[in-house]
Amino acid sequence: MTFSFHKMHGLGNDFIVLDARKNPIQMNPALAQALSNRHTGIGCDQLIIIGNGKNQADVSMEIWNADGSEVEACGNATRCVPVFLGRDVIISTAAGLLDARLSDEGACVDMGRPRLSWDEIPLAYAMDTLSMPVAWEDLKEPTAVNMGNPHVVFVVDDVDAVDFGRLGNIIEHDQLFPERINVNIVMVTGKNHLKMRTWERGAGLTRACGTGACATFVAAKRRRLISGKTQIDLPGGRLVLDENSEGHIIMRGPATYVFKGEADWASFS
Ligand SMILES: N[C@H](CCC[C@H](N)C(=O)O)C(=O)O
User: Fold this and answer.
1) Range of the domain at 148
2) pLDDT, position 151
């Protein structure tokens, strides 16, 4: 039985997009992992399933990491949905309703309000989340932010000098994080200008992480490293972050449609 898929990416954070609005798809961890595998499958950082929305949502969005874990939010994929559909949309996700609109650079999305208390991240026990009293070698005193998914943000002098492939993996799986964690490192490169990298929960080092950029913006603002609209440079390119009058995080940036493909479900069982 064959199916169509669409390859898209947000600054190189790449996705397999499945349109399940006419034919519902029952995804599971093993199948998500098989489809995401870059050697034996189609290959992606995350698998995105677009379904029919209900109530005020135009569509629903399911997000599966390459390791097969289903997660609550994906900023770069949220920008891809209006580009895929060719119109502005309200998207229902496990993290709530998201407003995603086409824009000159690709898309502009309202990623909602960050959650900042230790039990909303979540952490395994109570702790100040602005400057957490913890360290992993030279990465210390991070800020924790939940953007629908959990993040920690470390401020460093040089993001390119960090052994991030090793440390990111260690931190992701630390028992302080009962749901694991996305790990971000950031440096200030100018007034309201940051440079960052992300080790993603369930996907490892990626070219960009949209919710990571949102969490990093929130952390930098809380630490008074920036004030107002901010440009953030990620390995795959640039995002523009701001906060609206309701405290929602607004993210603008590219979203790219690459190609449509056909495959057979039997190849991934
Ligand atoms: N790895 C993330 C999900 C994908 C987020 C990222 N690709 C983005 O653009 O926000 C997690 O496990 O929470």
Assistant:
1) 135-247
2) 99
Residues 8 and 89 in one domain: yes
How many angstroms separate the alpha carbon of residue 192 from the centre of ligand 1? 24
Q: What is the mean pLDDT of residues 150-161?
A: 98
CA distances from 81 to 167, 179, 249, 257 (A): 32, 26, 18, 10
Q: Which residues contact 266 (CB under 8 A, 6 or more apart)?
A: 1
Answer yes or no: do 217 and 157 share one domain: yes
Give the mutation target among 64, 149, 184 for probing the ligand 1 site: most ligand atoms within 8 A of CB: 149
Question: What spacing in Å lies between the alpha carbon of 148 and ligand 1's midpoint?
Answer: 10
Looking at the chain, the number of H-run helices and the number of E-run strands are: 4, 19
The pair of structure tokens assigned to 232 is 């953030």
Q: Please state the ipTM of this predicted complex.
A: 0.99
What's the residue count for the chain? Answer: 269
Confirm or reject: Cβ of 201 under 6 Å from ligand 1: yes
Quick check: CB of 36 below 6 Å from ligand 1?
no
- Annotated binding-site residue? 148: no
Q: How many domains does the chain have?
A: 2
User: Is 80 designated active site?
Assistant: no
Q: How confident is the model at residue 269 (pLDDT cuts 50, 70, 90)?
A: confident
Residue 219 CA from chain centroid, whole number: 16
- Ligand 1 lined by 253 (C-beta under 6 Å): no
Domain identity same for 105 and 8: yes
71: domain CATH number?
Answer: 3.10.310.10
pTM of the complete model: 0.98
Query: Percent of the chain at pLDDT above 90?
Result: 100
Tens digits of per-residue pLDDT, 85-115?
A: 999 999 999 999 999 999 999 999 999 999 9
Catalytic residue among 80, 108, 209, 214: 209
Q: Is 129 contained in some domain?
A: no
209 lines ligand 1 (CB under 6 A): yes
